[in-house]
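Z., the sequence and structure:
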Amino acid sequence: MNRKHFLATMSAFPFLPGLLSGLTLLDKTQRSMILIWMDGGMSHIDTFDGKPEASPDIAGDLKSRESSLEGVFISQHLPLLSEKMAKMVLIRSITSPEGNHDRGSYYMLTGRRPNPVLTHPSMGSIIGHQSAKNDSPIPPYVAIPNAHTYAHQGFLPTTDGPFEVEGRPERQNFQVRNLEPHPQMLRAMELLRQTDQLDGDPWSEAEADRDRFLNQAHAISMDPQIRKLFDLKQEKPELRQQYGWHQLGQSCLLARRLVEKGVRTVFVRFDGWDHHLDIKSSLTYGFPPKLSAMDQAVAALHEDLNRRGLLDKVLVMVASEFGRTPRINPRGGRDHWPRASSALLFGTGLRSGTVVGRTDAKGESPIEQPVSPANLFSTVLSALGANLHQVLHAPNGRPVPVLDDGVRPISEVLI
């Protein structure tokens, strides 16, 4: 169920007396995650795995420089993140056999290779599924502006899927559509209550999940304080400027607002990273350029979380479905390259200043500590305190462990 259907059903669920007068937010002592997804395949060489000594056909025209971590070279267009590298975790040796966008995204977001008979749940859905169930109207999983196809709940109940805002937070008129209560809501609720009474059978577990989901939607629309969570006008203009008046900056600011109030996972989708043509221009020109937007937004998010004392409760990861070819193609771009990619992380459960793995001089393959998407998946879940040994169940009752046998977290990254 997407955001539109989620909110469209809010007027068809009976009001539970007292819910809005005694709202209980999600348990903020639980750890949360912000996943910043660079949709399309972020070039590792042009971001976090620079090769300054490589030949021009490998290094390209986008230069890298040494960061605050000795021997770690990242793009010169990421100066703010370069200064913060000692406070972060960098994984430079992610390797995968999946070079197709869909299959690569599936592996990174679910920790599993694509399966023809079963769609696995994403990180956000697993985290939400393992959260204590309550009547909080705050969605445990939110996507800005929407979730990737494989960032959904898979075989888990619809209640574990993402709430998609489907709007551009950087726009002055941004608001979550269909959020305001419909004038006929009370009449519709009474009609549904009477209809439900005609069914004398006990409610099934699926019906209970449905009702909890609809109850959440109803509460969100009825309570102005909940709606304010999505209102960036509540933030000071100076802070909005620090994040940047662009899609990624304002999306990251909205993500911070949400995790601060107890949302367990926020999926921030920033597309446009599939650079088969003229990668230099694609990354350094625009309003704003891709690299500058990432640098400003992610650095501001780190500072904001730290200032609010949230770095020990929130994990942030910047990742993509795969890297891009070390060699520049004839059109000045880079093609799909799953054999090597990078991810940047910081926050709760992580050992700051850790660098995992290294690729060869051309950035083609890991030569130290290769990391699979499944390893990365298990590392993030472990840092968040998730139950790695839980066995989930598909609708037909089939047991499905959270992780495949033999998958282990990256131990040196974890505190």
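The two ends are 36 Å apart (CA to CA). The mean pLDDT is 89.

Let me know what you think.
H.
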